[in-house]
Amino acid sequence: MTVLSSSSASLYFSNPTLPTSTHLHSQRRRLYLSSRGTQTTIDTPSLKPSLRSKPQVIVVGAGLAGLAAATKLNSENIPFLLVEASDSVGGRVRTDVVDSFLLDRGFQIFITAYPEARKLLDYQSLNLQKFYSGARVYFDGEFHNVADPWRHFSDSIGALTNPIGTILDKLLIALTRLRASSLSDEEILSSNEVSTIELLRKTGFSNSIIDRFYRPFFGGIFFDRELETTSRLFDFIFKCLALGDNTLPANGIASIPNQLAAKLPPDSIKLNSKVASIDFGTSNPVTLTLKNGEILSSQNGVILAVEEPEAQKLLAGKSADKPVQKKPARSTVCLYFSTDPSGLPDPDPVLYLNGSGKGIVNNMFCPTNVAPSYGPPGKALVSVSLIGSFNDLSGWFGESKVGSWSHLRTYRVRFAQPNQSPPTGLMKGPRVGPQVYVCGDYQNWATFDGALVSGRRAVEALLEDNRVPARLL
Ligand SMILES: Cc1cc2nc3c(=O)[nH]c(=O)nc-3n(C[C@H](O)[C@H](O)[C@H](O)COP(=O)(O)OP(=O)(O)OC[C@H]3O[C@@H](n4cnc5c(N)ncnc54)[C@H](O)[C@@H]3O)c2cc1C
């Protein structure tokens, strides 16, 4: 993949004869139009030689949704341009290198069973490193295991009588696993919904397992310790956890978007290019004005793959169907520390949860225990996630260990995820105006997977709208 900075991309737009690979790509001049499972190939009627250098579709935002949209366009041989405000692809899924440590921008795990991700990603090249399937819960001054009985049978038997829930709770976990795994994704995502906390109570879980395990574990996944998030998302994640592994790519979570970007045509990504406004309806084609004043237009449509608040801003007053954010977003803070391996509690690739109900730390783990490549040789990395600010791990592991950690960096992610408490529509339609489509995690289920699906669906809608009636073929 070659990416363009704002200035080189302007050149691309102002010089239609420039022989870039994108031009070769666009010379196919064909739009593949899918209709109800069948695919038809036609010459695009609106193409004129003078427009040859122009992409037929512009995707705004190179997070997972935008990259999935670009991947789908690419697979359909439709020339496109992916325009991104920041200096790299990935959106919320990025990794920084600091003092030879890999710092993901917030605690993120990749679940291998995500169905859309399985179709799009090459897992082998991601070199996925596994977490222990379970967690170690801090409660009453001690650590207690919660283990997946299918993968760590003896650990789970040993955990049956610990204070992280009753024996009945542990049987209910197994039943919930079976129930969620037996449902199709479609059934889960369109099922009757309640909040996760309501589902857990209705299922019969005790307050002790809810407070000591579910609040920190699913609260950490949803950034929502109150567990107001829809039961649909709970079931979807539970199913994926049951069917797949929790992992980190050896080269950081950003390897996921980087892998998608690497398969796109050279010069199809334009970085450092923030879209300031979009104009559609009165003008044809849709036009985008960048912050630097540059104007882009596309022949067949624009897909807005920006995060929900930004989509609202760009579409304000322009679309009756614009995304409406009714609920406050979910936020998180992630702190990283470096230490010597002797400063770690243990060498296990395990997630620690705060089941004590006290303090502000929700969870912590040592990325270098999961993937040694997250740190330089002889050094260890500690990741601490919280709601609030940092202070109370000394009580967990002792001042001598925690005091040895050197703070590396703190990520405060104000918009970590959209709020997905009921009522949710996890399969929202992508059309917001003539030739304008939206995608992003807020359109579907707010995960890597939901973002990828939303990107594909936006392109499918665009293809459907550009479909030429059969009688013209
Ligand atoms: C800390 C954290 C941990 C997470 N952990 C997990 C996890 O473990 N598992 C999981 O499945 N999900 C996790 N998620 C959620 C997941 O990362 C998101 O659901 C998903 O990445 C969203 O992708 P997206 O493409 O919809 O949005 P984004 O990633 O936000 O992409 C939007 C892109 O649009 C660009 N953009 C915005 N405005 C403009 C503009 N005006 N012009 C041009 N470009 C613009 C942005 O720069 C960005 O690149 C986590 C999220 C966070 C923040």
TrEMBL record:
Record-annotated Amine oxidase domain positions: 64-463
InterPro entries the UniProt entry points to: Amino_oxidase, FAD/NAD-bd_sf
Single GO MF annotation: oxidoreductase activity
Superkingdom in the source lineage: Eukaryota
Protein name per its UniProtKB record: Amine oxidase domain-containing protein
UniProt organism field: Nepenthes gracilis
